Amino acid sequence: MSRAALLVLADGRFPAGGHAHSGGAEPAVTAGRIKDAATLETFCRGRLHTAGLVAAGLAAAAADGHDPLLLDDAADARTPVPALRQVARRLGRQMMRAARATWPSQALDALAAARPRGAHQPVVLGLAARSAGLQPLDAAYAAAYENISGPATAAVRLLSLDPFDATAVLARLTAELDQVAQQAADAALRIAAEGTGALPAASAPLLDITAQQHAAWPVRLFAS
Q1: How does DSSP assign 173-200, residue by residue?
Q2: Cα–Cα distance for residue pair 46/48, rounded to 1 Å
Q3: Per-residue model confidence (pLDDT) at position 208
Q4: Least packed by Cβ within 10 Å: which of 181, 187, 193, 199?
Q5: Which tens digits make up the pLDDT trace of 80-139?
């Protein structure tokens, strides 16, 4: 397929359910850690180099043809908080539906059968990229970008932030996004020799803690 498939996969309008999730922005706004474009940029940068890097590594590995069930276990090991594991699998289930309708493949069907309650979203994303004929680096870019575009979009809704300012934040992070995507793709190449332990395992404890707290909120705008 054309590499233009990456544009479809990374498009925020791809029906994979991401619009309902803030990537931790909602609790960060409530706590006052995100209050304007500058603090949004700080938040997104931190997320890119932690959760974004981990997701990009998993996606690149799945796109490279590594066993998605082993990668799903690796994703579980890198997601210590129950709330985030549930979110990742819920998003993975929605991504699976969209991917199978868009780029049908036996690999997607097999993973859906093996994980009927949903595999981790980055693993499904990487397998979707492979089914679309994309490369591991492409999958890494899609996963990394999603990890910062979600919070940026959510901040527009939560703060009435100027969408031009939110987009400028994403633009200022593009050089770092390049670095993260390449780092993730390079890690995926090492799996053959080192196993899934070669994949990034960066942690973001504050994201973990606030995600678990957010899951218990009686009223919230976003699912996570």
Answers
A1: THHHHHHHHHHHHHHHHTHHHH-GGGS-
A2: 5
A3: 94
A4: 193
A5: 999 999 999 999 999 999 999 999 999 999 999 999 999 999 999 999 999 999 999 999
Alpha-carbon distance of 104 to 223, in angstroms, equals 28
Cα dihedral angle (185, 55, 2, 133), rounded to 10 degrees?
A: 80
Q: Which of 136, 135, 137, 126 is nearest to 70 (CA)?
A: 126
Torsion over CA: 141, 144, 148, 154 (sign): positive
Please report the DSSP string for 131-143 in residue order: HTT--HHHHHHHH
For 36-73, give one letter per residue: b (16+ CB within 10 A) or e. Answer: ebebbbebbbbbbbbbbbbbbbbbbbbbbebebeebbe
Q: What is the mean pLDDT of the chain?
A: 95
Q: Where are the alpha helices (DSSP H) in 67-135?
A: 68-77, 82-102, 106-114, 121-131
Token pair of 128, please? 């979707």
Average pLDDT, integer, range 60-78: 98
- As given in the structure block, the two tokens for residue 218 are 């009686």
Dihedral sign, Cα of residue 93, residue 7, residue 38, residue 219: negative
What pLDDT was estimated at residue 1? 59
